[in-house]
Amino acid sequence: MNELILTVEDDIAILKVLQRSLTFEGYQVDTAEDGETALSRMQVHHPDLVILDLMLPGMDGIEVCRRIRVSDKVPILMLTARESVKDRVTGLDAGADDYLVKPFELDELLARVRALLRRSIPEKAAELSFSDLILNPSSRQAIRNQRVINLSAKEYDLLELFLRHPRQVLTREVIFDRVWGYDFGGESNVLDVYVRYLRKKLEMPGETKLIHTVRGVGYVLREPD
């Protein structure tokens, strides 16, 4: 299941840009234009991350952040037009995990979102599963048909990415960015090598194929045809 990001911003133009960009990156996006609505959304949808504007009508971002922190450890990225150290400290003291000053580059915001989500994964030990495959984040092992599969660090990261985005075609660029942190370039075959490693471990004789190649694009985790 894709990560859900709650974006709280009263500037409609900025809100739409963030919603469009995050959706394009493969995230689910919920939105709110004020603090009260944001807190209501939190109760219903339980997001994996909150992007929170500091200057909101009525209840400001600092108060929203404090109220979230009473009962929830969800990562919070705070946005603000204020550049002073005092304002940044106030936001962090209220419980924000990171702080980004407007105007910002979308690439930087997306990088911070990825970093915050990665940081929160150890606290979320829920198993990931697809078909007859299970991935345990605590042991970092996969299980298929009661067979325990030991994974290298990169094999685990790659399989986790597939399991968090089932049936979604992931481009080579997206996989390189999410698993290795940068683009290896079109000539590198490191991704193909690791997919081959995973398939060898996951797909024993008689077991269905789960990781499929989408020629010229990337890979997808889905049921066999």
Give structural attributes.
about 220 residues; alpha/beta; 5-stranded parallel β-sheet; 4-stranded antiparallel β-sheet; 8 helices
Q: Mean of the pLDDT scores?
A: 87
Strand content: 15-25%
Number of helices: 8
Query: Helix fraction?
Result: 40-55%
Distance between the termini: 21 Å
Query: SS-based structural class?
Result: alpha/beta
H/E order of the elements? EHEHEHEHEHEEEEHEHHEE
Residue windows where pLDDT falls under 50 for at least 5 positions: none
Shape by Cα distribution: elongated
- Radius of gyration, taken over Cα atoms and rounded to an integer in Å: 19 Å
Enumerate the strands of the largest sheet in spatial order, edge to edge or round the barrel.
2-1-3-4-5
Main sheet, how many strands, which sense, barrel? Answer: 5 strands, parallel
What's the β-strand tally? 12
Task: Describe it.
The protein has 225 residues and is α/β, with parallel strands linked by helices. It is built from eight helices and twelve strands. It has helices at 12-24, 35-45, 61-71, 85-93, 106-120, 153-164, 172-180, 190-202, and strands at 4-8, 28-32, 49-53, 76-80, 98-101, 128-130, 133-136, 141-144, 147-150, 170-171, 211-214, 218-221. A five-stranded parallel sheet has the order 2-1-3-4-5, with helices on both faces. A four-stranded antiparallel sheet has the order 6-7-8-9, with helices on one face. Strands 10-12-11 form a three-stranded antiparallel sheet. Helix 2 (35-45) runs parallel beside helix 3 and helix 6 crosses helix 7. The protein is elongated, with a radius of gyration of 19 Å.
